[in-house]
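Weekly structure sync, notes
Attendees: PL (lead), two postdocs, one rotation student
Agenda item 3: pending single-chain targets
PL asked that the sequence for the first pending target be pasted directly into the notes so everyone works from the same version. It is reproduced below exactly as submitted, 549 residues in total.
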Amino acid sequence: MGGFWVLVLLTLGACGGAEGGSDGVPLVFDVPLSQEQAVEPSSGRSLEVQDPVLAQDANTVPAGTRLWDQLNGYDSQLQGEVEAAVYQGLKAAKTHGKLKSTDCRVAAVVLDLARGKQLVALGSKRAQRPASNQKILTAIAALTLLGGNGSFETQVEALGTIEAGTLRGQLVLRAGGDPVYDRNHENAMPAWAMDVAQLLARAGIQRIEGDLVLDTGTYARPAPAPAWPSKGEHWQEYCALAGGFSANAGCLSAVLESTPGMLRVRVLPPGHGLKEEISVRKGPAKKALDVRVGVQGSRVIVGGTIPAGIPNWSARFAHPDPVALFGGALIFALGLHGVEVTGAVRLQVNAPPGTPLGAVSRPVLGQLEAVLLDSNNSVADQLFLTLGARGGDGSRAGSLGAVQTALADLRLAAGSLMMVDGSGLSRENRVTPRLLAGAMAGLLEQDPAAFDLFLLALPLAGRSGGLANRMGKGAAFETVRAKTGFIGGTSGLSGVALEDGVPRLAFSILVEYPRKAGLNVRAWKPMQDRIVQSLAAWIQTHPSPSTRR
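Predicted structure, written out during the meeting:
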């Protein structure tokens, strides 16, 4: 696994490296049929028109089957406010560095969910990198294909003979894509292993004289997706791998507990299969926290200094093989429940059938907040691959096909969608704002109950997730739920603005720009916040005639 990876937590930055942007660029607009060009505010300069208006309009679609990704129309006031906010963002980008006029691309769309209309369109048909906004499609596809009651199902089988409480043979588990992750605890494996132990107990098995066989089925072998960050970042939590099996969402957790007379260091989950090298010491109270974690070959290393006065500290970082992590952690946890496995962990595709003992079932809903609120990349990728595996092909191509099927079920055209992972971490991903907003609108129309689950898992403006420190006042405060997104040179914000707690507007804002440090904070986040504040204020002056639900 390459060299020693180092984490200095006090200086840890965001994923993706530096960012950048520009002002004075020829923006790309969608325009009404009667309009041939858009005009830059205050300058009169013509802007590039992107593409012709689609022939399909909501008025030509039978009631109840609206094509949300093909709506036309504008609200001139709101469109103007969005354009003005974009130019403010471009101006801020220009002051931050000398850039070419064609360096930045801003695309946005706003849909009125109550009236079935498009209100804003700016480059909305152009496919751009979505960053973590892609998790919206992953979550919506899961809710569409698996339903609100969908689950990860890991089948457990006994292959061999059972005599006097001993299975002489193999314990076979067939992959169900469960990340075995609890966002509120450092180690979810003991509870998961308890379910396996109970299945074994019902079959009269207390000891396994043989191997633990992990059948990964059609799941892709754990590996970085194309165009992921460089190898030097692969130890980071945001680059944790996914596969048919995983534990702790593919990560190790270094947990430090400090008291006046003791310093305890644990690497969880136990049974991770790596040799631990721990060299952490206490330092003076005023000394900076400097704890380094990483994996080098077969070793996991935790070293550095924790200042006195810091009682607890933890960090997550990627294990090199989530399937091996799962197998070792499960054997260890089964031992805690009184079940001994004498053999090793063995991977096999299409293992021979054994005697079914049952299944360990965990709700997909239990991971929705990890995907949307916490923006956990590994859990999102695990869910993406599971959608493909459920359709018989757990490769990345098969998983894209599953997402396309879900979008078709919502009467949306996948079109130029490029989706090589479920997280948005890859720089090869491409999606249009129309499709992101249309997917949210389509799920609301087709399955309001599932949409409620999706909505509640999104960050709330000024309160939670990536929006905890954004839009803490103004019309958007506590009235907007949205997914943030960032990788170097890419920024996104997509979600829903509420009217009296009811979804009213679906929106998506995507930006691509040169990778220049700090530009997202200086230009694009403020631009996105101004746009969303305008949407929330617009709702106040344009109440819906009636609620849609």
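Discussion points:
- Residues 519-541 form the longest helix (23 residues).
- Confidence is low (pLDDT under 50) at residues 1-29, 31-64.
Action: rotation student to compare against the earlier draft before next sync.
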